[in-house]
Amino acid sequence: MSRVTVPKTYKLYIGGKFPRSESGRTYEVTTQAGEFVANAALASRKDARDAVVAARAAVTGWAGATAYNRGQVIYRIAELLEGRRAQFVDEISRTEGVTTAAASAQVDAAIDVWVWYAGWADKYAQIAGNGNPVSGPYFNLSVPEPTGVVAAIAPQARVGTSLLGLAAVVAPIIVSGNTVVVVPNTGAPLSAISLAEVLATSDVPGGVINVLTGSPAEMAPWLASHADVNALDLAGAGDIDWVELQLSAAETLKRVLAPVAGVPAPALERITAFTETKTVWHTKSML
Amino acid sequence: MSFLEYAPAPESTAILNLKSEYGLFLDGEFVDGSGEVFDTISPATEEVIARIAQADASDVDRAVAAARRAYERTWSRMSGSDRGKYLFRIARLVQERSRELAVAESLDNGKPIRETRDVDVPLVAAWFFYYAGWADKLEYAGAGPNPRSLGVAAQVVPWNFPLLMLAWKIAPALAAGNTVVIKPAETTSLTAMLFAEILQQAELPAGVVNIVTGPGATGQALVTHDDVNKVAFTGSTGVGRMIARQVAGTNKKLTLELGGKAANIVFDDAAIDQAVEGIVNGIFFNQGHVCCAGSRLLVQENIHDEVVDKLKYRLSTLRLGDPLDKNTDIGAINSAAQLERIRTLSDTGESEGAERWQLDCTIPEKGFWFRPTIFTRVSAAHTIAREEIFGPVLSVLTFRTPDEAIAKANNTPYGLSAGIWTEKASRMLAVADRLRAGVVWANTFNKFDPASPFGGYKESGYGREGGRQGLAAYLESAGWEAPAAIMASAASATTTAAGGRKKTTKKAVAK
Amino acid sequence: MTIDHPVALAPAERAVRLLGGDLTEKALALHLDGLAGVDAVGLEQRAAGLATRSIKTSSKAWALDTIIRTCDLTTLEGADTPGKVRSLVAKAVTPDATDPTTPRVAAVCVYGDMVPYAVEALGSAHGDPDAGLVSVAAVATAFPSGRASLEIKLADTRDAVASGADEIDMVIDRGAFLSGRYGMVFDQIVAVKEACRRADGTYAHLKVILETGELVTYDNVKRASWLSILAGADFIKTSTGKVSPAATLPVTLLMLEVIRDWHRLTGEKVGMKPAGGIRSSKDAVRYLVTVAETVGEEWLTPHLWRFGASSLVNDVLLQRQKLRTGHYSGPDYVTVD
Questions:
Q1: Could you tell me if B238 and B281 lie in one domain?
Q2: What pLDDT, on the 0 to 100 scale, is given for residue A110?
Q3: Closest by Cα among A130, A58, A60 to A277
Q4: Are strands B48-52 and B21-22 parallel, antiparallel or unpaired?
Q5: Measured between alpha carbons, how far is residue B22 from residues A182, B426, B503 in Å?
Q6: Using CA atoms, how far apart are residues B282 and B114, in angstroms rounded to an integer?
Q7: For residue B510, is pLDDT > 80?
């Protein structure tokens, strides 16, 4: 006689906590064949608002952590993913409808993406920053800094992106010290929430990564127009009206990264896209 | 007459050989514009200096077409070292004609000859010289091993540093291999026209730089033109926002250098006399027509009175008047419209309860002038502490602790620049870390250098001008290899249950 | 030095007023070390900015006369003789024989043993420069090094005053200053000032030479300026002229800023004398601009401002002749002294 299993309730992840949507809404997550898998929370604009508040509150601590520390915290995500690989393979293969081998390959890739970006934490500033030989008695240094709160739409392709796409979008945003509000893959959101559970037990401070399952088309306009959001990663927004999002973002001159097909390849540029170059001058004299 | 009322020491205008009328600079030649010719006046005397052609949409079309032709046939095919040589030539020609350019700029803009001679024009030459050297070294610029130029750059520059802003735009664009259509500000086209003559002397290939003069509508026609690949704008945040909207959804690369409301933070351990100089230079340089001006003085409460006293004493030696007089510190406000804005905002400051102090000095009868002004008893809620005045008006606020100073400094939608004055290097670095501003000057202010990136956070815009970072605005990166193992796993991850279907993960929908 | 055993200092009037009655070295050191620092780059840039002032026509004419009127015409050589001093005095009294409108210099500045010859040569022209007469300034206190016992320095000073010197240019003990013995420097200035006292109870004016080229940093110059003023200096002076760098515009600006701050604090006016290295009119005019824009042009009188220079006057005379005649003059048309 088979045991009756205990299915998980999938909720949102905001400020290190797992609330249901304030709207009380959920939506059905199904297999490719349409069979019910789970209910996911359908986040609302108010959840988005709360997530931005949580993300903003987390900026100072996260950006202020040492780069070495951020690197270790992000590497720890990879470690924990590796330890819970079976769960992720299961969720991916059920929701994406892919083979165990393909799901496993995606987990591998996601883990490797986290590791790749973890290593950049204490290096990107050395590549993107520099001393400047100005004509005068000045110490002059340019360093990249996190831009602040970034809202992101994770890749939405039904296959091959649910965990990997999230990593490929979120990791480069947070590695420099930004915090993120991310809308994960709508059709296959389970691994994103399971990742949030990993995050909650890892060393990532609450509010650094906030996960809002639901509809990009519904939430993105609120995030794009939110005055306390500094930048927008439209990686997975190719199928919604992203031009309208850019127009909204222009109101507060947000930095915007345009949509890409599939999963963005790991690249230093995805880190620097969400940084600001700060140049500090100081007088220099022996007298 | 007292000694301090130094006898007039006017710079001679004999060096100028101005034409009475200037056309557009298209495809290497001066041509008539299709719009109505307009006057450019001296803001110090309101006298007409020259008449300037106005480009309409059809002229902009011609200019972009010329730039496109030059891009495809000449400039993008030329070796980096040859492009560099043209830029070096331009740098040298600017040096050779520096006095002439300085006089023309002071005449047309109203800024003191001391500044055009010692700051604007030397920096123009330096900017071209700096970027000239980059032209054949682009693979070291950080944009990947095979950086590519973008194509035709549409550039719109403001009236506060007409020639310098032109140089900031043109030098990196050309070094990176782009061609340019640039629009000077309506009130300050003159030095761009002299610059066009320099381009002719440099024998820069026709069409590589095209200059279209006219009002805002000309600029709008330019930035919205379908055949430009890059838009670079320096000016107000309002117009920048409009351009960001106009560019949304296109594949034009955009950089914006917009407004500011910089905090200049003076701690009680500062070198006070130098801090006072820095405050003066921060807000009264170029009549305060500076986007990065230190318009909010944040002074530690325990030294407020001393600093304000010293500041007023120091201001009493500032000389306002003829921009061409070599002893003038404060020149003319650039236009009647700008003067009106400064007046309105200053009146608001007073009506909202701030205390106004103005330099007691003689104002010339003709022209646009505004006395150097200090507002004390300003709080963060006052309009003059929030809005960019873009004039010689300083708002003084106080703070008690470093945290409070930082909180007040960052309490603005802008984030272009900031100043810190302290003799304590540790505190300076910690405060600099927490200021949300693209340029932080510690124990100095308003310093510019072609090697030093300049640009803002938040609503002060995005992208940097100057340095290696300034080149990135005109390059498309290419050639970085993505980590192979990750890409292989990612490719396997797209194998479905049905098996076999793969899709690319790299192709961009839009750039 | 501890608080328990404070080293008492001579009760110089200004210092007592500012720092309190029980004047100690500790109190003085705390005060000097608590002064706001100086940012060298900012200071030098301000000086460079002042140097760009363009002084033309009527302003230039006034400036040239002011340079002469506030000049301490100086000879400080081992080879000085009574004859050399008489020649210097002749130049001081009649800088340009071809132009009787040329003002006299403020003073001649000589070694102490040359004072009697200077006084004798000046005769009726000897007196207050504000009255168009010429003073005699003597360097003293084991000038230029200052390396002698206090007794020798005081004797040196008394001798010069007794010989008729109106002004004493003393040097501070830079060694003591650099090793932090501010009290010693202070007490010596107070003592020298007392040695400037004449039999009738009046005092020769005391100029305190900091020798800024040996103090090196601007922070040191600022502290030494402040210390000298507290100890009773009538003038503070940059240099002996025997150490390079001597007077520079930034150092002079800094010292003037101290003088300005002292004036704002107390209402008292202290004089300033840059010395050494100022050879051209153009350079000297920059100093006048710096005075006018830092402490105010009321400082541009012999009582509050001097140039210590030997060759400057002739360059000024050439410029004066150019202004008067409209053509350039040459060195054969001014006298060697």
A1: no
A2: 97
A3: A130
A4: parallel
A5: 54, 54, 57
A6: 16
A7: no
Q: In this complex, is the C-beta atom of C13 within 8 Å of any C-beta atom belonging to chain A?
A: no
Asked if this assembly's ipTM is beyond 0.85, the reply is yes
Task: State mean pLDDT over A87-97.
Answer: 94
Q: For domain A9-283, which CATH number applies: 3.40.109.10, 3.40.605.10, 3.20.20.70, 1.40.20.10?
A: 3.40.605.10
Let me know if residue B503 belongs to a domain. Answer: no
Six-digit token string for B234:
């320096």
Q: Does the distance separating the beta carbons of A285 and C41 come in below 8 Å?
A: yes
Chain B residue numbers with beta carbons less than 8 Å from the beta carbon of C53 are 6, 326-327
Q: How far apart are CA B301 and CA B303, in angstroms?
A: 6
Q: Which of C91, C193, C237, C269 is catalytic?
A: C237
Q: Where are the domains of chain A?
A: 9-283
56-85 in chain A: CB under 8 A from chain B: none
Kindly state whether residue B131 falls inside one of the protein's structural domains.
yes
Cβ contact, residue pair B274, C39, below 8 Å: yes
Residue among B118, B271, B317 whose CB faces C293 most closely: B317
Query: Residue C273 catalytic?
Result: yes
Asked whether residue B32 falls in the same domain as residue B87, the answer is yes
Answer yes or no: do B387 and B252 share one domain.
Answer: no
CB B195 within 8 A of CB B163: yes
Whether the per-residue pLDDT at C236 is higher than 90: the answer is yes
Domain ranges of chain C: 9-325
Query: Does a structural domain hold residue B501?
Result: no
Cross-strand pairs, A17 = A14
Minimal C-alpha gap between A211 and chain B (Å): 22
Residues of A in contact with B495 (CB under 8 A): 98-99, 101-102, 105
Which residues in chain A have their CB less than 8 angstroms from residue C42's CB?
Answer: 283
* pLDDT greater than 90 at residue B59: yes
The answer to whether the CB atoms of B438 and A276 lie below 8 A apart is: yes
Share of chain A above pLDDT 70, in %: 100
Q: Are B297 and B381 within one domain?
A: yes
CATH H-level superfamily of C9-325: Aldolase class I (3.20.20.70)
If asked whether residues B269 and B393 sit together in one domain, one would say: yes
Interface test with C, best of A139, A281, A287 (most C CBs within 10 A): A287
Residue in A98, A251, A265 nearest the CB of B505:
A265
How near does any CA of chain B get to the CA of A268, in Å?
9
pTM of the complete model = 0.94
Cα–Cα distance between B114 and B121 in angstroms, integer?
11
Q: Note down the domain range covering B54.
A: 13-258+465-471
Are B210 and B268 in the same domain?
no
Residues B289 and B206 in one domain: no
Name the nearest CA neighbour of A56 among A171, A194, A226: A226
Query: Which chains share 3+ C-beta pairs under 8 angstroms with A?
Result: B, C
Residue with tokens 């905002």: B345
Q: Report the gap between the CA of B114 and the closest CA in chain A (Å).
A: 19
Q: Does residue B383 sit within a domain?
A: yes
**Maximum CA extent, chain A:** 88
CA distance B465 to B453: 5
Residue B482: which of A127, A242, A265 has the nearest Cβ? A265
pLDDT over 50 at C141, yes or no: yes
Report the pLDDT value the prediction gives residue C4, as an integer from 0 to 100.
Answer: 57
Residues paired with residue B398 on neighbouring β-strands, in sequence order: B299
The whole-number pLDDT of residue C335 equals 87
> Is B203 one of the annotated active-site residues of the chain?
no
